[in-house]
Structures are given as structure tokens and as C-alpha cells.
Specification:
Blueprint lengths: L5 H24 L11 E8 L6 H4 L1 E7 L4 H4 L10 E12 L2 E15 L10 E7 L11 H9 L15
Antiparallel strand pairs: 1-2, 2-3, 3-4, 4-5
Length: about 160
């Protein structure tokens, strides 16, 4: 930073760092538990098995829903309008006689679209509610815990779920 004293550079760096930390904390804490999501449109169901390198983090049966605000954009794989919400019920599962069955609820994860509020994470806020309890939040750093993985699908507005015809 030419033209600034070392002290001014330090103040500038501290201001930028605090701004980034505020954005990350905000995008984790402002995401609300989605009431009534089981009546939203079912997008798909996927099972992350022990064969996946992500099993320890997101292993289980994911039952994914989208709210009415995101339904039309789902058919084109985005971009999604603000107020779109994707929810994934994450369950344990069993495999018996070649059939997978839904088990106990492990948690509820969600993505909420607000391009201004969550600009630092592609316009999406992220949260995971342990055991589906609105008071048991897991996300403390949405960039590291969620957004870094979702960057792989930037061309789909950071959403892994796609429309199934």
C-alpha cells in the first residue's frame, strides 16, 4: 500500500479483517430454521455411503427440498432468486436385503439465497441444525465448512441438487 504509513496499513488491514469476520459470522447466525419445509417440493434423495471421502462429514440419506421461491429456477439449474431455500434432511440409513431405509434424523442443513447479505459466500447463507433442533447450530465458519465445497458447482449457482425430469 503505497502512500500509507505502516500504522495506517495496520489499521486498514484490521478493518478489512473485522469486516470479513463479521460477514462470516453473520452468514452463519442469520440463517433461520425453516418451518414447514417437508411440504415444499421434493428435489431428490441421495445417499452418501462409507465409500465417499465425505462420509464422516455428511454421510447418510439426504432428502432435499426447495421452497416455492426457488422452484422455477430449479428447472434451469439457476440462477436462483433471493429468498430461495434448499433444505436437506440428513438421516442415518440401513441397508438390508438390498434396500436402503431411512433411519433417525441426524440434522437439517440449509442454504438460503440473499445475494447482498451473503455476498462473501456466493449469495448463500448456510447452516446445519444438529438433530433438527433450531437451537443446535453447527456452522461457525460458512466459508470453510460449506462454501469452499460448493464452489465446485459455481456454474449452477453453487447448488449441487439438479432438476430431475
Amino acid at each position: 500500500m503505497s502512500g500509507f504509513t505502516p500504522k495506517q496499513n495496520a489499521y486498514w488491514l484490521a478493518a478489512v479483517t473485522l469486516t470479513l469476520l463479521t460477514i462470516d459470522a453473520r452468514s452463519a447466525g442469520d440463517v433461520k430454521f425453516p418451518e414447514g419445509y417437508r411440504s415444499w417440493r421434493h428435489v431428490n434423495t441421495m445417499i452418501v455411503t462409507k465409500d465417499s471421502p465425505l462420509f464422516e462429514v455428511i454421510g447418510g440419506m439426504h432428502i432435499i427440498h426447495v421452497n416455492p421461491a426457488g422452484e422455477a429456477a430449479l428447472e434451469t439449474n439457476g440462477p436462483y432468486p433471493n429468498r430461495t431455500i434448499f433444505v436437506s434432511d440428513l438421516h442415518d440409513f440401513t441397508l438390508k436385503d438390498g434396500s436402503y431405509s431411512e433411519g433417525a434424523l441426524k440434522g437439517v442443513s440449509l442454504m438460503v439465497k440473499d445475494s447482498e447479505l451473503y455476498a462473501s459466500t456466493g449469495g448463500w447463507g448456510f447452516e446445519f441444525f444438529v438433530d433438527g433442533d433450531a437451537n443446535k447450530r453447527l456452522v461457525t465458519n460458512p466459508t470453510k465448512q460449506c462454501f469452499e465445497c460448493h464452489q465446485a458447482v459455481k456454474n449452477q449457482d453453487y447448488v449441487y441438487s439438479t432438476y430431475i425430469r
